[in-house]
Specification:
The chain is mainly α and 469 residues long. The chain has helices at residues 6-28, 46-53, 69-75, 79-95, 99-112, 117-133, 138-158, 163-178, 183-191, 218-234, 246-249, 252-266, 270-288, 307-317, 321-334, 337-347, 350-367, 385-403, 412-430, 442-447, 452-468, and strands at residues 33-34, 37-38, 292-294, 300-302, 374-375, 381-382. The protein is 64% helix and 3% strand. Helix 14 packs across helix 15, helix 17 runs antiparallel to helix 18 and helix 19 packs across helix 21 (452-468).
Length: 469
């Protein structure tokens, strides 16, 4: 029979509770804050320090609308169902085109689940790609593209150890400003925002500092984000690059420099053309090309690989040189490594620089209204400045196509040639002439009839943008 009475048991229970409470208070004590950082307090507040270190804190739950059904679920500990309810509401608001309510609901979702990466990825993409398409004016579309980018940037602030979010910011900036249907306008808006709130002190349009704090070209902003993503990956980010093949993830910085180099001639910055392509070539070949990647069955390979390096990798992987060469060639094709290598190499030549310069001068003359022929006193016709420059450019491009035929099978070079011919066709029409039976680049034009509508469309977009300036 126990000799401990009821009163003694209560005392022992109380002592046990105090003993257990001590470590809980000691470990769970709020971390001491210094200027912008968490101070090391030894064991005191160690759990709070770890939450700060690994970005696991949930300090935003109190910002959810207290009158909402989501808050009712949240008070019962049902955060997942609460987020689901908000997701359904967001979809409903989007279908009804209630954009303000959609944005507020999305904000509530990420307050509930700030570390659920897929929410950041999906809703950022939804705002930048789906919602932006619902608007007719290019200015309005650009606003919602920025909203998607800003949403992702907020995601990186709350998830500092997730490389894929940093990469996605770079991808959104690069693709929406450089690849989308509105790219000709968006690239300009990125540094000269049409929103009057972002005018500079001199009254000129300036960038939205939330997405472009330094007023840089969109490709250079994308480059900065891709570099940060790779640095996070080097530091073994918590989530890593799940959902994207590593060899494509890591090429971000080099690709953005390649795209940036292409824009130098488009802007008429010919002094920067060759240096920009030199930098892009080195980044593609030396930085990206010399990285080690793991392929199928964890076989290591390198894209820019010498014969000796190939043999060394084959020995390291425990495979034959022939098998290593197959792995290497397969990934060269998958990443278009050789195509970009050759493109950058050709663009660095003086011949390509002159072809780009003549193209620019011909287009400039057209947009400045110098496309009409003039009648001289002796009744002879002097062809327009635009036609002269366009014919010189087409001649230079035709020579390049003969020298580098593999570079003119498909891709950007063909697109540039077709656009040049379209300018030439319009100039001939303005002067009441039919296209001549023979002209430079006629062969490329005739071989690509399915791309003629694209050339006409690109011509309209490019000339409209010049008129807008």
């Amino acid at each position: 029979m126990s000799t401990v009475n009821s009163r003694q048991r209560k005392i022992w229970y109380g002592v046990g509770i105090l003993l257990l409470l001590g470590p809980v208070v000691y470990l769970g004590f709020p971390a001491r804050q210094t200027a912008g950082a968490v101070a090391d307090s030894g064991g005191l507040g160690v759990l709070s320090q770890k939450r700060q270190q690994y970005d696991l804190g949930e300090a935003t739950l109190g910002k959810v609308d207290p009158s909402s059904s989501a808050m009712n679920l949240l008070l019962l500990g049902l955060r997942g169902p609460a987020a689901t309810v908000l997701q359904l509401k967001a979809m409903d608001y989007q279908e009804r085109k209630q954009w303000a309510k959609l944005r507020a609901t999305v904000d509530s979702i990420i307050m509930l689940q700030p570390h659920y990466v897929q929410i950041w990825k999906f809703q950022g993409w939804n705002l930048a790609y789906n919602v932006s398409r619902e608007w007719d004016k290019v200015d309005d579309r650009f606003y919602w593209v920025k909203e998607g980018i800003k949403f992702l940037i907020l995601g990186t602030n709350r998830n500092q150890t997730v490389p894929i979010l940093f990469h996605d910011v770079g991808e959104f900036v690069q693709s929406k400003m450089g690849v989308s249907d509105e790219k000709k306008f968006f690239r300009e808006f990125f540094v000269r925002d049409p929103d009057p709130r972002f005018k500079t002190t001199s009254g000129e349009p300036g960038p939205d500092r939330a997405v472009n704090p330094d007023g840089k070209d969109s490709y250079l902003v994308a480059y900065d984000w891709f570099v940060r993503a790779n640095e996070k990956d080097d530091n073994d980010g918590v989530i890593g690059v799940k959902g994207k093949t590593h060899v494509f993830f890591r090429q971000g910085p080099a690709r953005s420099l390649l795209y940036f180099a292409k824009t130098r001639a488009e802007k008429g910055l010919f002094d920067e053309h060759i240096p920009a392509w030199d930098r892009a070539y080195r980044s593609w070949m030396d930085d990206y090309g010399k990285m080690d990647f793991l392929g199928l069955e964890d076989k290591k390979y390198r894209l820019n690989c010498t014969e000796d390096e190939l043999k060394a990798l084959a020995e390291e992987n425990g495979v034959t040189v022939q098998e290593q060469r197959r792995i290497w060639a397969q990934n060269l094709d998958m990443t278009n490594f050789r195509q970009w290598r050759d493109t950058a190499d050709v663009e660095r030549t003086p011949e390509m620089l002159e072809a780009r310069r003549s193209s620019f001068e011909g287009k400039k003359a057209y947009n400045e209204g110098r496309s009409s022929d003039t009648m001289l006193p002796d009744k002879t016709v002097q062809i327009s400045d635009s036609q002269k420059s366009l014919e010189a450019a087409m001649t230079q491009w035709a020579k390049l196509s003969e020298k580098y035929p593999n570079m003119f099978i498909d891709g950007d070079n063909v697109e540039d040639c077709l656009l040049l011919v379209q300018y030439y066709r319009v100039v001939c029409q303005l002067n009441g002439r039919n296209m001549p039976d023979s002209y430079p680049l006629k062969d490329i034009w005739d071989k690509n009839p399915n791309r003629h509508p694209d050339a006409e469309r690109n011509f309209l977009i490019e000339t409209r943008l010049q008129q807008r300036k």
